[in-house]
Design brief:
Elements (H helix, E strand, L loop, with lengths): L21 H13 L3 E5 L3 H6 L11 E3 L5 H14 L7 E7 L1 H5 L2 H10 L4 E6 L25 E2 L2 E2 L8 H6 L5 E6 L3 H13 L4 E6 L3 H4 L6 H10 L5 E5 L7 E4 L7 H5 L10 H19 L1
Parallel strand pairs: 1-2, 1-3, 3-4, 4-8, 7-8
Antiparallel strand pairs: 5-6, 7-9, 9-10
Helix pairs in contact: 1-7, 3-5
Length: 294
């Protein structure tokens, strides 16, 4: 659906997000692109807690607060109901959830929504841990990161597993559209939101959103860290159409990738890593880009 009328602020100021939270930047711009004819299901998580504290709400569109694990199912139900009532035309149905509610606890519902082909745009706001419940590790947490359940010490480097490639997994469901984005590249983000909304059928957007509280960085560094994640190659901006994950289209390629150390050393969650650990991460990033550039 094309945006109608003038662009409106549909995510109101005065919410309770932490200073510097990138989720607010993302949601504000996503809703500007979606427009007022949008219904959203939002999972329990940081976004819900800070924006819907009764009797107030930051959402200027209809919102349904779902459980932690079922935002995709609720959005699918809304989409079916609108179609059965003959009222789906011109209405965007979206789901918003964090990485915990997407990568882990909500993956079953998300996979089902994608497999059934619902006309829903699902947005994962990825801050790489369960930030709302105490900064516990998640399958989105990168190797080496310190969390409350993957603390570094004599027997641990922090998180022991690599980050799950969820956007590629979603694309592999043969859905019409899947993409990654981040708040440092707003034009790219909004372009992908528009493509997702204009796509008939399910679409998945993985939006990288730094967290000052969990990552232990300055509240004014969120956008810069988003940019560094892309410029170092740690986070790749890409899109896939019709499940073609063998031919991902990289939508922004750094002219010369910066060392990953520039990204890691701005976050105290990586402060325990040795030079050898950082070199391991650098090698993994280099190998990932070699595959992308083949």
């Amino acid at each position: 659906m094309s945006r109608q009328g003038e662009e409106r602020e549909l995510f109101a100021p005065g919410h309770r997000m932490c200073a510097g939270c990138a989720e607010g930047i993302a949601v504000r711009n996503i809703l500007k692109e979606a427009g007022p004819h949008t219904i959203a299901a939002i999972a329990t998580g940081c976004l819900e807690v800070v924006s819907t504290a009764y009797p107030q709400t930051a959402w200027e569109i209809p919102v349904i607060h779902a459980a932690f694990e079922n935002a995709a199912s609720v959005a699918a139900g809304v989409e079916v109901a609108l179609r059965e009532l003959g009222r789906k035309e011109g209405v965007n149905v979206m789901a918003f959830a964090g990485d915990g509610g997407t990568f882990d606890i909500g993956f079953q519902a998300l996979s089902g929504m994608l497999e059934r082909g619902h006309d829903v745009t699902y947005v994962c706001l990825d801050n790489e841990a369960y930030m709302n419940t105490g900064i516990q590790r998640c399958s989105s947490t990168p190797w080496g990161a310190s969390t409350t359940t993957s603390p570094p010490g004599s027997c641990s480097k922090g998180e022991s597993q690599p980050k799950k490639p969820l956007a590629a997994i979603c694309a592999a469901h043969d859905i019409p559209y899947a993409a990654t984005a981040t708040v440092a590249y707003i034009k790219d983000l909004r372009c992908k939101v528009r493509k997702a909304l204009d796509t008939e059928g399910p679409a998945f957007l993985h939006v990288f959103t730094p967290c000052p509280t969990g990552w232990r960085h300055g509240s004014d560094d969120s956008v810069e860290l988003s940019r560094l994640a892309v410029e170092t190659g740690v986070f790749v901006l890409w899109e896939a159409v019709d499940g073609d994950i063998c031919n991902l289209k990289v939508t922004y390629k750094p002219k010369k990738r910066k060392p990953v150390a520039e990204y890691l050393k701005k976050q105290r969650r990586f402060g325990h890593l040795t030079d050898e650990d950082i070199q391991r991460i650098q090698q993994e990033v280099d190998e990932k880009w070699e595959k992308l550039e083949d």
